[in-house]
Amino acid sequence: VQLQASGGGLVQAGGSLRLSCAASRSIGSIILMGWYRQAPGKQRELVADISSGGVVNYDDSVKGRFTISRDYAKNTVYLQMNSLKPEDTAVYYCYANYRKSYWGQGTQVTVSS
């Protein structure tokens, strides 16, 4: 499975961004997809994930601000990020669990104060 992430950028605090992760195969067969992030000097951490059955999971730090969703027609997973904070600044990585783990390239999100 190849994953192509896009949508990062520079935004002011309080702003919004939408990340996209396009998969090279039907996402209906992918058990779990999600987004991780890694800030400078920190470990990679889970932001949100969504199962093939539509069950979603969010890190406490993003609950109420971020929304993960799947578009089966486009084989794409989205991460809508609202009310962004400087502490959301990180490289965001798309992830898929299909027999094994797959990672997309990172996309930089920078939130200025």
Write a brief structural summary.
With 113 residues, the protein is mainly β.
First-residue to last-residue Cα separation: 37 Å
Mean pLDDT: 96
Biggest β-sheet strands, sense, barrel: 7 strands, mixed
Briefly note the structural class of the backbone.
mainly beta
Instruction: Assess the beta-strand content as a share of residues.
Output: over 45%
Shape: globular
- How many helices? The count is 0
Query: How big is the Rg?
Result: 13 Å
Order of helices and strands: EEEEEEEEEEE
How many β-strand stretches? 11
Low-confidence stretches: none
Helicity level:
under 10%
Write the layout of secondary structure elements.
Blueprint: E1 3-6, E2 9-12, E3 17-23, E4 32-38, E5 45-51, E6 56-58, E7 66-71, E8 76-81, E9 90-98, E10 100-103, E11 107-112
Parallel strand pairs: 2-11
Antiparallel strand pairs: 1-3, 3-8, 4-5, 4-9, 5-6, 7-8, 9-10, 9-11
